[in-house]
Amino acid sequence: MLKPVDAFSADGPLARAIAGYRVRPQQVEMAERVAAALAANSVLVAEAGTGTGKTFAYLVPALLAGGKVIISTGTKTLQDQLYQRDLPTVRDALRVPATTALLKGRANYVCHYHLERTLGDGRFLDRDEVAHIHRIARFAAISNSGDKGELATVPENSGAWTLATSTRDNCLGQECPRIKDCFVMKARREALAADVVVVNHHLFFADVMLRDEGTAELLPACNAVIFDEAHQLPETATLFFGESLAPVQLLGGVFVIGGVILAQTTPGATPDVVVEEA
CA-CA distance, 151 to 110, in Å (whole number)? Predict the structure, then answer.
């Protein structure tokens, strides 16, 4: 079997497939460390400087190792770049038969049901929104993915997207009359079947939260998870698992909120915060 160090050699598959390729010792070292971590089912934290080529350094060993791999990126822009450019380039160069899938949150996919309801109601805020919703309708009729990132002619902040997508609260699930055509369900089926699934940190932690609640699972089981832009993980995790406390007006007494004791002595005063185990 091809080893990572051989894949990165001056006469290896990457050199033959990529114009202007050059061997980078730091890239090879990182690839070998990633390969060792995958083989041992261990944890690796790697920091690579600009120009190292870290994306290829983890893609090559991940593809050569086989098994199910989830790759999580910090932004949807990097997610699209990884899936559409870097991953196919490395896979084709190595000639591995790995299947790939791109998975985003439900708000990134057109919902046939809500789109049709919007077109039927005809209630729009302005002319731009009317034009945008009709572009989305034409896109939905021909798209294989329904991913709004593929429709550059409608701005991401357009109100039309809110009218043409679903949320966790208003999705009809199995009761939806367009369930067979659902882009979200299609993307999840493809993710279940793929060898390499590209997600983003927000979706990854949304899946962790739902698993903890025992309500649902968004991502398939896997052999390894690779976090690109891992320095963003604490901030993203805080969005899902953090708790915020703001000054409040209390009438008296002691209140326990999430393991923090809020104690006050003067009615109507802003309470002191005493951090103790409750």
Answer: 11
3-state secondary structure of 177: coil
Please say whether the beta carbons of 23 and 8 come within 8 A.
Answer: yes
Strand duo 100-102 + 272-274: pairing: unpaired
Contact 27, 56 (CB under 8 A): yes
**Could you give the 3-state DSSP secondary structure of residue 23?**
coil
> What's the pLDDT at 249?
46
Closest CA to 106 of 21, 185, 195: 185
Torsion of CA 197, 201, 204, 205, to 10 degrees: 180
pTM flag (> 0.85): no
Pairwise CA distance, residues 69 & 194, whole Å? 9
pLDDT digits (tens, 9 = 90+) for 71-115: 999 999 999 999 999 999 999 999 999 999 999 999 999 999 999
- Contact by Cβ (8 Å): 32, 5: yes
Query: Other C-beta atoms within 10 Å of 29: how many?
Result: 17
CA-atom Rg of the chain in angstroms:
24
15-39 mean pLDDT? 95
Residue carrying structure tokens 């699934």: 197
Domains and their CATH numbers in the chain: 4-99+194-240 (3.40.50.300), 106-183 (no CATH), 244-278 (no CATH)
Scanning the structure block, which residue is given the tokens 């003067």? 266
What token pair was written down for 202? 């927000």
As a whole number, the mean pLDDT across the chain is 87
Element at 16 (helix H, strand E): helix 13-17
Alpha-carbon distance of 180 to 192, in angstroms, equals 17
CB atoms within 10 A of CB 30: 24
Strands of the chain (E only): list them: 69-73, 100-102, 196-200, 224-227, 254-257, 260-263, 272-274
